[in-house]
Amino acid sequence: ASFRFPARLATRLKCPQPATPHLVYKAVEALRRGAFVAVPTDTLYGLGAAADSADAVAAMVACKKRAPNKAVAIAVAEVADISRFAHSEGLPPGLLSALLPGPVTVILTR
Q: Whole-prediction pTM value?
């Protein structure tokens, strides 16, 4: 799948835009439709998709021209959500709750 930013939007939008409630709503609606969105981070823009949508993740990976078997980062709302996406049974009890939320990345297998 190929993605091109529509020229009419490129001239109309000024980036970065502040995260207004309206733009957050539009991003959430896009994610619910199975699309992926650009999100600002502290250093650059990243692409994000709903982790529970295999089609959306595949489209995002294809847009980035990444190998499909290369790992992707997943952000979750609650520590308990991690088990939906990765194996964490081998970790010491309470480790994830002690680390998260926080400035740490935990690398787990799917």
A: 0.70
The per-residue pLDDT for range 6-60, each reduced to its tens digit, is 555 555 555 666 778 888 899 999 999 999 898 887 788 889 999 999 999 999 9
- Residue written as token pair 């539009």: 26
First to last CA, the chain: 24
Q: How many residues in the chain?
A: 110
- Quote the CA–CA distance of 57 and 30 in Å, as a whole number: 13
d(CA 90, CA 106): 13
Nearest residue to 90 via CA among 109, 77, 64: 109
CA angle 72, 67, 3 (to 5 degrees): 85
CB 2 within 8 A of CB 64: no
Contact call for residues 109 and 85 (beta carbons, < 8 A): no
